[in-house]
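Running log. JK asked me to keep both predictions on one page so they can be read side by side. First protein, sequence followed by its tokens:
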Amino acid sequence: MFRLIFLAFFAFLPGCTQIIDTYHSSDYIEINDYDTRLKMSYLSRGIQSSYDQDALAIKLQGSELTQNWINNKRTSLLPVLAQASTDIAVQQIGSSLGSTIGTSMMGAGFVLNSFMNGSFDYVGQAFLPEKFQGEKLETAEQAHAALIRFTEQKVRLLAERIGWSFECSYGCDGPTQSYVLRRGNGKPLSDRYLYTTENVMVFAHIKPLLKVAPDDVINALLDFPVKWKTAPGFTYIIEFYSDPIFNKGNQLVLKFQDDLNSLVGLSRGHYFKKNRAGHDFLRAFHSTPYTFFADKFSRALYYDGVEYSFTVLPAAIRVNKFVSEEIYLTN
């Protein structure tokens, strides 16, 4: 306790390195680009209420971004959009009133089926193009294997970035994995952080991928043609934990937990994402257009190297700011 008070006192003295554990209001910058707010709100839609998701769907279908995509694809989706709008109004899919407006169901997921029930506290998803890292992904199994390899590469690159050792402790090459990053003789984490650690455990669970329809709206929102994606929801899970527990042989302690749907639960320390260092680890890992993570409690979305923030009050387009601070990790 004394150390925390001591650090907090000296953090703001002139000439001292500022000790940080959370972002300050001055670190958040308003997003002026409407399309960016729309895109990021769509990615993180699973943490919104069903009502706000419906409102977002209406804004999405009427956006210039979406309309330009429709025109460029030369796809006749207007009857579908009209039906979707009617369905939203009557709260059901395929209503008789909607059918009188447009009977084609091509791309109905454009507005409704890609949305969720708003019950998620966390949302994470992955997207892959047809050709990825030199390989043409022709089957869901190929795409799943490619995403598993990519995930390990991202963790390994993160370890190299901070100069720590990397080891796979469970599930190597499988859909459920755990890794350990150990400082050893490497650099300590930045002294700008209030809370640091000597070891970090990474837990990954990668669910199977689905083939993306050509008229899926995700292709209007991301900057590459998406061929494969994990299902909407928390289907690409990457979690960072500090101070993992090791046995006498210096191996990570693992525990199987039935209440996690047969996933591998780990005996672990602090949930790292609750502090600034953890935020930076998440930003560094998701410095890619292929994956994202959103947290309802932290009101944070990590995508393509940026941390976005949500409004406090519910809204259709909820993402409104981004963090301007750089990623520190080490000194």
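And the second, directly underneath as requested:
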Amino acid sequence: MPLRTLEEALKRKIIFAKPVDSRLTLTEKDASASLRQFELTNLPADTLVIKPDSVHIDAFDGGRYSKRCDYIVFTRLASGAYAFFIELKSSSASGKKYISQLNGASCLFDYFDSVLKHFHHGLSLTEYKKRFVFVYKLPLDKEPTNVKKLPRLLTQPSAPNTLPANACLVKDQLGLPVERLIFGLPPAGA
């Protein structure tokens, strides 16, 4: 119910797309980007995907306060309701500039939650667990030959990816099951 209400309240340009046959391709429109798309699979039909960087709040003096990640994917899985904050980059995570973008989108999520609570009889997004994801593409000439040299690529991070600083780092690939982006869950059957 809160997602349907949020979808009805948002401007159409902010809503990205719905999954087709449980698949969703997130795209980067920048002509200079080498990472042009990232595909998620196993998404339910009622998944809501928004583009936070299409939202302009002109209250701050630019800088880090106006940065947002590329996508927020709201979905329900067997393990619960999730909001995946996803940043696509054509380079690696050096410098961690993506953290400001993930933080900004998290603030926007909190704002959406507040709007629902205040204007829609206490509806809330609090059931959606935040998970932060940084998807990147390494240029072919910089591709490590030794897997141990790669940063956390869909391996268990040192902490659950519930904060931007603990974002799951994912080397681009197509057809990634969305469940693989959740860290900090007990193993199946535990």
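Observation for JK regarding the second prediction: The mean pLDDT is 80.
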